[in-house]
Amino acid sequence: MRDLLEQIQDNVPGKVEITKEGLVHDMMTPGGPHELTAMRLRRRLEQAMPEELAAHTGTPDVENTAEGIMRHPDVMVIAEADMEVQGSFDPRALIAAVEVVSRSNPDNDWVGKVRDYPLLGVPVYAIFDPRTGTGAILSDIHTTPEGPRYATRKDFVYGEDVTIAAWTISTDGLPRYAALPQDITPRSL
Regarding beta strands 125-129 and 94-100, do their DSSP bridges make them parallel or antiparallel, or are they unpaired? Predict the structure, then answer.
């Protein structure tokens, strides 16, 4: 799968990742509210964390070749020392993965990554959803018959403080996606 991904990545719009169930392609490149949310979360985390840690928003991906999974979190909380590698980051080195839900493919963040991140050993997964102004922090990986899963889920609404791993940050001022015409329901007159 990785060879196929490397061949097509530069020729297709959006982002392609390898999941436990195959390739997932988010056709749309993230827009303003998505990128602004990721940037604000990165800054807030870095203000709260020790200097030797980073809230990284760039490349590379995180990959577990034995499981055949390669993901690219919007924000990765990781020690700078664990970034000094060739190729993909080891997902077990992540302290947390933070995702801003894509408008075009929300199931990738709410279903696929909820399945894949505990399988990869990512201890904390934070989801921010600009469609609804809500999110969840998932943690405490445990074994189930279907494989590793998060045991704890803490839901939040924008405006509340949230704790990601050991750091509490504000969700005030995070942007929301503007309603699209199909998102608007007609009002009765």
Answer: parallel
